[in-house]
Backbone:
């Protein structure tokens, strides 16, 4: 689907892709060097928000608004993942 | 005019997410990192959703953007609260600069299974 956006919006889309990619690499750095397990779990939350942002910028660039469903699913699934990780941390501590 | 507002919202949202990522790299502690992520990244996602609902004005886009905003607002504080409680109960090391810690020593009771 071809969309024609104004130049200022094109610049905003390129800038947002750049900033979100830099943020993803920062999250990767913390994921690799995080000293403890909760640090890595926190990075999962960041990566979920970043992927919601990437999906939104992709929707802006291509006009495929069906991908908002993916954003809804990510926003729900990450909550489940966080709760599961918290339960796992508490149970791991009890042993 | 709408284009300028949408571009401003998009850039502001991505800058908030960039600030959250910088906070994750630079801060010294799991609690401070969580403080950086939960607020800044949620605000960034909300601003970007506002931008996309300004450009694409079908009602289904508005409904789904509103759904994502409501889910983020409801779930982000609960999730980070659970993780912080589990990390504090597990004795996660604290960085420098803490003035007080009201949960010091009351961890062992009051945390459910």
Residues:
């Amino acid at each position: 689907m071809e969309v024609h956006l104004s130049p200022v919006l094109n610049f905003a889309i390129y800038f947002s892709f750049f900033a979100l990619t830099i943020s993803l690499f920062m999250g990767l750095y913390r994921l690799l060097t995080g000293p403890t397990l909760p640090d890595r779990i926190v990075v999962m939350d960041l990566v979920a928000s970043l992927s919601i942002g990437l999906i939104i910028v992709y929707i802006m660039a291509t006009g495929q608004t069906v991908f908002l469903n993916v954003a809804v699913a990510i926003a729900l699934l990450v909550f489940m993942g966080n709760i599961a990780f918290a339960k796992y941390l508490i149970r791991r501590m009890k042993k | 005019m709408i284009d300028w507002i949408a571009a401003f919202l998009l850039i502001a949202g991505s800058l908030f997410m960039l600030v959250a990522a910088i906070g994750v790299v630079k801060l010294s502690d799991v609690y401070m990192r969580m403080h950086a992520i939960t607020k800044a990244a949620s605000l960034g996602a909300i601003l970007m959703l506002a931008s996309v609902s300004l450009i694409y004005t079908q009602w289904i886009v508005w409904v789904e953007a509103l759904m994502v905003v409501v889910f983020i607002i409801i779930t982000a504080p609960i999730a980070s609260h659970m993780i912080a409680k589990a990390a504090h109960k597990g004795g996660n090391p604290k960085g420098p600069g803490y003035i007080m810690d009201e949960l010091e020593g009351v961890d062992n009771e009051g945390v459910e299974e």
